Amino acid sequence: MDRRLVLWLAPIFTTIHNVEEALLMPAMLERRNSSVPGLFQKLIPPITYKQFLIALAITTVIPYVIAGCGDLLLIGGRAVYLLLIFQAMMLFNVLAHGMMATMMGGYAPGLATALILNLPFSIYLFRRADKEQWVNKKSLRLAFVIGGLLHTPGLTAVILIAGSIANKV
Fold first, then answer.
1. Which residues contact 108 (CB under 8 A, 6 or more apart)?
2. What pLDDT, on the 0 to 100 scale, is given for residue 64?
3. Which of 27, 142, 145, 163 has the most neighbouring CB atoms within 10 Å?
């Protein structure tokens, strides 16, 4: 499969994953919001479904912009590297969904596509990127580190930005 096509699968699989979350998240948001103790509600404000959908839209658009604006055939290119970082975040997201499902004692919205699409695709993508040297080994390792470091604070920032947007719309 052509490298360009493989890299375009990152935004496509993200979209499918985000659609699963969008369809199944309302009940979990209600449960999450009601479980925050009163003392912490100012520190951990409720997340509205509208805010969540805006956050999903933002995280869905980002990899399309990277793939659409960059040269996906350029070895060591910025777009290739950014998509690898983004996919590393999605790989950490698989772990987050697993932990969430464990804490909930069952299914958590997004778990199915995380396990069926994002986990195997991430493994395939990183093995292929390493084998074909899309970026050097140091950069590939750094993509994992950056993806891991960005996952939780990045999603938190997107949710906060989405809250601001939701309040204005």
1. 28, 97, 100, 101
2. 98
3. 163
